[in-house]
Write a structure and sequence with these properties.
By secondary structure, this protein is an all-alpha fold. It is built from 6 helices and no strands.
Length: about 140
C-alpha cells in the first residue's frame, strides 16, 4: 500500500485517521491562540494581521471574532478522538474559514482600503479551508 493510502480511514471505522485528527486539533489550538490574542491583545493582534491604526469599530469586531475563534477552537479540542465530533468541528471550522476568506477577498476586490491586510489574510483563511477539507476527507 502506498504512503498516500496508508492513512485513509475506511467508512464507518471506529478511530479517525491520526494525521487528520492531529490536523484538526492543531488548527483548533491555533484558533484558540489567535482568538485569545484578538480578544485580549486586540490592537497588537490586529497589527500582526495587517490592520494599521484600527478604529473602535474594528477593535470591537476583532474582539467578536476572537471570542468566536476561542469557542470554535475549544469545541474542536473537546472532540478529542470522537470521529463524529471531529468531523463536525472540522466542518464548522472550514465553513467559518471560508467565510473569512470570502470577506477578505471581497474587501480586496471592492478596494475597501485594506488591500494589504486582505491580501495577507486571503491565503491564511484559504489555507485553513484546504486543511479542513483535507482532514474531513480522512476522518
Amino acid at each position: 500500500m502506498s504512503d498516500a493510502h496508508q492513512h485513509q480511514q475506511p467508512a464507518g471505522a471506529a478511530e479517525p485517521d491520526e494525521l487528520a485528527r492531529a490536523m484538526v486539533l492543531a488548527v483548533a489550538a491555533g484558533r484558540v491562540a489567535i482568538g485569545a490574542g484578538a480578544f485580549f491583545a486586540t490592537r497588537k493582534a490586529l497589527a500582526l494581521l495587517g490592520f494599521e491604526q484600527p478604529g473602535g469599530a474594528a477593535v470591537a469586531l476583532a474582539r467578536l471574532a476572537g471570542g468566536r475563534d476561542i469557542a470554535l477552537g475549544l469545541h474542536a479540542l473537546r472532540a478529542g478522538s470522537d470521529p463524529e465530533r471531529l468531523r463536525e468541528a472540522a466542518t464548522i471550522g472550514a465553513f467559518v474559514d471560508g467565510g473569512d476568506a470570502i470577506a477578505f477577498a471581497a474587501a480586496l476586490v471592492s478596494r475597501d482600503g485594506i488591500d494589504r491586510t486582505a491580501a495577507m489574510n486571503v491565503p491564511i483563511a484559504g489555507s485553513a479551508v484546504v486543511a479542513g477539507i483535507w482532514a474531513l476527507r480522512r476522518l
